[in-house]
Amino acid sequence: MGIANIWGMTSQERKLVFSCDYFIKEYDPDCTLYRGITIEAPINKVFKWVSQLRIAPYSYDWIDNHGRPSPNRLLSDLPPLATGQIVWNIFELIDFEMGRSLTLRATPAGLKKYQLQDLVVSYLIYPQDDQTCRLLVKGLMKYRKNLAGRLVKRLMPGLDLIMMRKQFLRLKMLAEQQGEEQ
């Protein structure tokens, strides 16, 4: 596994159990991606930002959000988290633990967009102390058995790293901002 597969995560963190592990029991994934970043903010504040991913990707908005900017403040009028919610039109929220984790599975439209057979991703917030936590992501993928699937297999880890790194750095910046909780 190269840096494109394990950016920012320690070997100890990769041994943690993520919710996505329970949703892919019928087969072994073709690819596992790990992402991690330290955020100097309390876990509850980081979770608020992570739960806001259901309305915006916080990555390259011109690619992932049709040019609409991801909000730079926490929104208070979002409906409560619920399984079945659609995230960015390409994922479904399939599991969550308040204050700790979100797990998403690609919808048929998402699978078509990425030329995948299956994709399940878990975001896990792991506290280090009262004011610092680790934001960890594990993604499990099953590629299509065709030419497009072979191409995606070669490109996905690197492209995902570019997008997730941007997302993580934006979430880190926003969560670490001083001042009142929005």
Question: What does this protein structure show overall?
Answer:
The protein is 34% helix and 27% strand. The protein is of the alpha+beta class and 182 residues long. A six-stranded antiparallel sheet has the order 1-6-5-4-3-2. A hairpin with a 3-residue loop joins strand 3 and strand 4 (101-106). The termini are far apart. The mean pLDDT is 90.
Give a quick set of tags describing it.
alpha+beta, Alpha-D-Glucose-1,6-Bisphosphate, Chain A, domain 4, 182 residues, 7 helices
- Count every helix, treating DSSP H or I runs of 4 or more residues as helices: 7
Element order, helices and strands? HHHEHHEEEHEEH
The number of domains:
1
Question: Which strand order do you get reading across the main beta sheet?
Answer: 1-6-5-4-3-2
* CATH homologous superfamily annotation: START domain
> What is the radius of gyration?
16 Å
Helix content: 25-40%
> Based on DSSP secondary structure assignment, what is the total number of beta strands?
6
Q: How does the helix and strand content classify structurally? A: alpha+beta
